[in-house]
What does this fold into?
Amino acid sequence: MSLFLSSYENRLDTKGRISVPASFRSSVASENFSGVVLYRSFTNNCIEGLSMSRMEKLASATDQMGVFDTELDDLSAMLFADARPLQFDVTGRIVIPEDLLLHAGIKDTAVFVGRGNSFQIWNPTAFKEIQNKSLGNLRKLRPNLKIKSDDN
Amino acid sequence: MSLFLSSYENRLDTKGRISVPASFRSSVASENFSGVVLYRSFTNNCIEGLSMSRMEKLASATDQMGVFDTELDDLSAMLFADARPLQFDVTGRIVIPEDLLLHAGIKDTAVFVGRGNSFQIWNPTAFKEIQNKSLGNLRKLRPNLKIKSDDN
DNA sequence: TATAAAACCATAAAATACCATAATTTAATT
DNA sequence: AATTAAATTATGGTATTTTATGGTTTTATA
It folds into this structure.
């Protein structure tokens, strides 16, 4: 799976259909499931999205943590219960379920936001706000993303 | 991936296409993705550029940090949301998106500036200015770049 | 049978591939 | 070292494809 990068603003039609950006589609093109998995973000008013293969990796990651980890139980309960697998139609569109749209405050336009191994779907104005906040934080804190030297 | 070195001034055509310097192209020639990734610098009025493989390393670095790391959230949010994967055409050109050009104040000419594992794209005059400032700082501060002995 | 969901068809705009040429750099030859 | 030849690189314009988006028809379902 290649990365989800960049941001794309697309429109929902009267039937709730919206084009998944072509670049995001090609990110999952090699997978068995021709579509994406969406769920309501735990932390933001937005929709989280990932590939089915990544969902499967999360499943096996939770396996590693043992059966009696209650915290993780809550997490996986939420995650897997809330997750919606949505298949692309012929032209690469999906219809996002009502409750997800509600959670993100999306009406007729949405922004697909790349996050590397995952992506998010936002109400355009809500996204601009949080993006400005993030930029502000960045300029103040200058966090450092370190890459081990042997990684190149 | 070999290093991005030296500086090259190239012109944009009417459609916004610009040749990536041949030397930079050969720096990423061995990679799967035949192109580069660009994003607006957080700190300067210029465009940052790197290889896709470097982007992927950043992605896995953020993965290591766990799902609920908020500081890194800001960084990766900005970075991945803003990053544009741009594929070379047959002759080695890319088209730099409007908003990136605007951010860097680039009109019809741009300088590709090598930065080792990454590079930058500048408005030519803006670059000359900042370059002079950098040289001044260097002469005053004489910082020391240390190399571990086993690194060669 | 009514209603929702999926499949199908159409199109304008944008992105990309294609072709051609000028300029520059590198290599070869005298 | 100077000159010529070859190859590479940068640049310009056109044609084709892809993409996003809208609408209609068919199929499944309650």
Chain A touches chain B at residues 2-7, 23, 43, 113-117, 130-131, 134-135, 137-139, 141, 143, 145-147, 149, 151-152 (CB under 8 Å). The CA atoms of residues 100 and 141 of chain A lie 33 Å apart.
